[in-house]
Design brief:
This protein is mainly alpha-helical and 314 residues long. It has 2 domains: 74 residues, Butyryl-Coa Dehydrogenase, subunit A, domain 1 (Orthogonal Bundle), CATH 1.10.540; 151 residues, Butyryl-CoA Dehydrogenase, subunit A, domain 3 (Up-down Bundle). The chain is 56% helix and 8% strand. A 3-stranded antiparallel β-sheet has the order 2-3-5, with no helix packed on it. Helix 1 crosses helix 4. It is globular and about 80 Å long. It starts with 23 loop residues before the first helix and ends with a helix.
């Protein structure tokens, strides 16, 4: 269905079968948000394919892009980004999967886990070490993105671009949970009145709405920044957008369950799924603790750089 509606084309350049008008990340963000508003799982199939394609978009040569991106854009092939391993989650530099040159192929050996679209995707962007080891998966040399030794850099640049997408998923989840909670508050009656008439609950609704709009504004601003400044690393803003929006999604979905009361805890109502979906946005593509570390590292590093520059000028 996603392919039939051309949604995968929105983040691919028109030279390779896409529809992008120079705003691929903003396009991806909007689609991810709207899909997540209804179902975060379906949204993840879309966003996971974007994540798998971004390394090709960032580091692939024109021949590689022409070979792989048209099928992604047409929805003929799902993509996946294979970084995480049993011992390498937040510590992405701890990957042990190896890629050893053997003639015109690389031989891959290792274990990846928690790979979105894993098993369903036909195109995988795999992060591996080029160290000697025995392997069992052969990959043509021409499939190597950029050059050996740049995989970690490509992975980090990929997260800079993809994290606003996680923020958008979080915003969509929060909006979907809010929509259901608002409807329930207006229709559920207790003490001969809609529960939405009670001040304590009305304040909850107001706070939920404000948080969602703030998160959406930050995610959209970050996406626009990434599109307009493609040569600039947006690490700071990408981390902020992902971290803030996912925290908002968790807060809003928990409040939504509270508004539903006991029904919110039951599978009979969809609101409990929104809360479970919100939680994962605080974890994948870097936990929110990692995001706060990234944010503080950029800010503190920037302060010391400016201080050193001022001292040299004096």
């Amino acid at each position: 269905m996603l392919g039939e509606t051309d949604l995968f084309r929105v983040f691919v350049d028109d030279r390779f079968g896409g529809l992008t008008d120079g705003t691929p990340i903003m396009n991806m963000v909007i689609v991810t948000e709207e899909l997540s508003r209804a179902c975060a799982g379906i949204a993840l199939a879309f966003a996971g394919t974007a994540l798998g394609a971004i390394p090709i978009i960032l580091s692939g040569n024109d021949e590689q892009k022409q070979r792989w991106l048209p099928d992604v854009a047409a929805g003929k092939k799902l993509a996946a980004f294979a970084l995480t391993e049993p011992q390498a989650g937040s510590d992405a530099a701890a990957v042990r999967t190896t890629a050893i040159r053997d003639g015109n192929h690389y031989v891959l050996n290792g274990t990846k886990q928690w790979i979105t679209n894993g098993g369903e995707a036909e195109l995988y962007s795999v992060i591996a070490l080029t160290n000697p080891a025995k392997g069992d998966c052969r990959v043509p040399v021409e499939n190597c993105l950029a050059r050996e030794g740049t995989g970690f850099i490509t992975a980090m640049k990929t997260f800079d671009v993809s994290r606003p997408g996680v923020g958008a998923q979080a915003v969509g989840i929060a909006q979907g949970a809010f929509d259901l909670a608002l409807e329930y508050a207006c229709t559920r009656r207790q003490f001969d009145a809609p529960i939405g008439s009670f001040q304590g609950l009305r304040f909850m609704i107001a706070d939920m709405a404000m948080k969602i709009e703030a998160a959406r504004a930050l995610v959209y601003a970050t996406a626009r920044h990434v599109d307009r400044q493609p040569k600039e690393r947006p690490t700071l803003y990408a981390a902020m957008a992902k971290c803030f929006a996912s925290d908002v999604a968790m807060d809003v979905s928990v409040d939504a369950v509270q508004i539903f009361g006991g029904y919110g805890y039951m599978h009979d109502y969809p609101i409990e799924k929104y809360m479970r979906d919100a939680k994962i946005t605080q974890i994948y593509e870097g936990t929110n603790q990692i995001q706060r570390e990234e944010i503080s590292k950029v800010l503190i590093g920037g302060f010391h750089s400016r201080r050193s520059a001022t001292a040299r000028a004096a």
